[in-house]
Specification:
The chain is mostly beta strands. The protein has one domain (4-146). It is 8% helix and 31% strand. The protein has 2 helices and 8 strands, in the order H-E-E-E-E-H-E-E-E-E. It has a 5-stranded antiparallel sheet, covered by helices on one side. A hairpin with a 6-residue loop joins strand 5 (86-91) and strand 6. The longest helix has 8 residues, at 15-22. It is globular and about 45 Å long.
Length: 148
């Protein structure tokens, strides 16, 4: 599944996000004028004086806002994993900031190891990271009560 064409591009605008992920830290942008969180990354804040935003670490905690369970036909690298889950997580710090990932049962777990019928909207989750190659660690999510 780690074929390079399936991984997100690392660019100057997104590098701080990926650098944080490599360190096991979830980062989002923050408006320098208003303090509001911003995601996805952008060159200028949509609020305040529209200056370039700062990057800040967030807790990595949130709640499942929505989810889907893809079934074949899919991109070939994902077909053997189907059905698997894709969750949208609303961050604890600002529920309008939502990140997409997969719910896993354990760190570095497979994206199809959580039974789809056990996933609940509103369930508390915490970010974990899966290293896929040197410059990419993907955010994944675990149920908060399953963490040590």
């Amino acid at each position: 599944m780690s074929e390079s064409h399936l991984l997100p591009p690392v660019s100057g605008e997104t590098e701080p996000f990926w650098e944080g992920a490599r360190r096991g830290e979830l980062r989002v942008q923050r408006c320098r004028d208003t303090g509001r969180l911003i995601f996805p990354p952008r060159a200028r804040s949509p609020w305040g004086r529209h200056r370039p935003p700062d990057w800040t670490a967030v807790s990595g905690r949130g709640r499942i806002w929505s989810f889907a369970v893809p079934h074949p036909p899919l991109l070939p690298p994902f077909s053997d994993l189907a059905p698997y889950n894709v969750v949208i997580v609303a961050l604890e710090e600002d529920e309008t900031i939502r990140l997409i990932g997969n719910l896993v049962a354990r760190e570095n777990g497979a994206i199809n190891e959580v039974p789809p019928d056990s996933i609940e909207i509103g369930a508390a989750v915490r970010v974990v990271f899966e290293s896929t190659r040197d410059e990419i660690a993907l955010p994944r999510w675990m149920l908060a009560e399953s963490l040590p």
